[in-house]
Amino acid sequence: MAAHRYDVIVVGIGGMGSAALYQLARRGRSVLGLEQYDVPHGMGSSHGETRIIRLAYYEDPSYVRLLRRAYELWRDIQTRAGEQLLHLTGSIDAGPPSSWVFKGSLQSCLEHDLPHEVMTSAELSQRYPAWRLPQETLAVYQPEGGFLLPERCIVSYVTAAQAAGAEVHAREAVVGWEPVRDGVRVVTTRATYLADRLVVTAGAWNSHLLPFLDGLTVPERQVLAWLQPRRPELFAPDLFPVFNLLVDEGRFYGFPVHGVPGFKLGRYHHLQEDVDPDTLDREPRLRDELLLREFSSRYTPDGNGPTMRLATCMFTNTPDKHFLIDVHPEFPQVSFASPCSGHGFKFASVVGEIMADLADAGDTRHDIELFRLHRFPVPLDARPPTERVQMAPRRRDMPGLVRRRSDYDRGAPPRRARLDTNAGRDLDIPGRRTPSRRRVSTSGRDRSQPQGGSGVLRDPRTDRTARRDAQPLWGRRDERSSGWPPLVSPVADEDDDAIRPFW
């Protein structure tokens, strides 16, 4: 039977994939969305009742331009859906006066002329009585911050896309793809499809389909808590803005009471646990709860009541904590977006527009230079051109499967992966092995896992290659003499939650 043909296939229908699906459908493209779980689901990075959105952006002021468009697009889909998806509470970014959280937020407000207030800890507690912050803390309040409802946002985008002609298949996992002429062939657990373009927004599973991202996008376990306030009135949206707070215990974020009878909080890079998304321990542990409860008991004591809910999700981190959005370095008919190091959902609406642009024209009207793949060059070595990354040879039992070269080099046995809960059987999917990677933070602290394999990665700017496991891709700050490019992102040191000067 002939394969179904589409203009575009979108793999992964979470926040960014659902927005891309809608943007492509409204442009008149025949588009298929493929999701390995439910729509929506709680297995990745686009769930949890609420997600912060804010204009004051300490990560980098250049994000603000994208955020302005993101707000417009969220309001557009909100109007189309006929329900409130965006809730404005104001946002607070707070920390010591010299911290990058406070100063970076203030810088973005000044650079983009955003309305804001700077408050001391005493002034903050007077206006928002739930807080008990250290005396030296300074805070930036920006009135346009708030939160989104991620599950409802995804449903709204998918519903609008279907109304515009899109086709969506849930519980249908992609097991491989290959380029064919100017298009792609995509193989799933149910069928084979053809398309002119492929958009990969599979979140923590991106590197399973795009092996060159292995080691550049690292999934990390994250835990959230909802605590019932002892004084609920202090944690209502009008008295408790969404917050980002840097304190001695780390960098925390949180929300007022909404959807669950408790205020929600989390710690960025919770216990710094790198994970495989297929084997992630999704059951919260006592240690997870105690870490978050300790924060609340110290800084929001009136909120430290009984636990209402605990939940896990994932961050998928890049070395510099900025997004990865680009076209494939070898196959321009393929584009991809990363889930964005724990601060991406607020951008899902505009990233959907960017992904539609890349699928349509290979470029976008938006400035995404900060997010391009080429910012991670690899050092050159003497390996001959024949050793570059190549497409894996096709197998009769699994056509189109893209596999890591290192698995072929080692002759690794296949890993059994449950891909379709409706199929009633397991499929042997070679190449879906737990990624082996070495992670080095830019603050110089070595975070390693067992390694192995050749892991050759192409540099798209020089068309030369090097062994990925011979050296880390991103280098330490004290290794500048070795030729590894240092990173300059202020976000890159957040693994240590260090309090340090930003300017």
Which tags fit this structure?
503 residues; alpha+beta; 8-stranded mixed sheet; globular
Topology of helices and strands:
Layout: E1 4-11, H1 15-26, E2 31-34, E3 51-53, H2 63-81, E4 86-88, E5 91-95, H3 100-111, E6 117-120, H4 121-127, E7 138-142, E8 146-148, H5 150-163, E9 167-169, E10 174-180, E11 183-188, E12 192-200, H6 206-209, E13 218-227, E14 242-247, E15 250-255, E16 263-267, H7 286-299, E17 307-317, E18 325-327, E19 334-337, H8 348-361, H9 405-410, E20 415-417, E21 427-429, E22 438-440, E23 446-448, E24 456-458, E25 465-467
Contiguous helical run count: 9
Proportion of β residues? 15-25%
Counting DSSP E segments of at least 2 residues, the number of strands comes to 25
Sheet/helix structural class: alpha+beta
Q: pLDDT average, as an integer? A: 80
Indicate the low-confidence ranges by residue numbers.
378-503
Oligomer: single chain
Tell me the span between the first and last alpha carbons: 62 Å
The largest pleated sheet is described as: 8 strands, mixed
Shape: globular
Radius of gyration: 22 Å
Helical content class: 10-25%
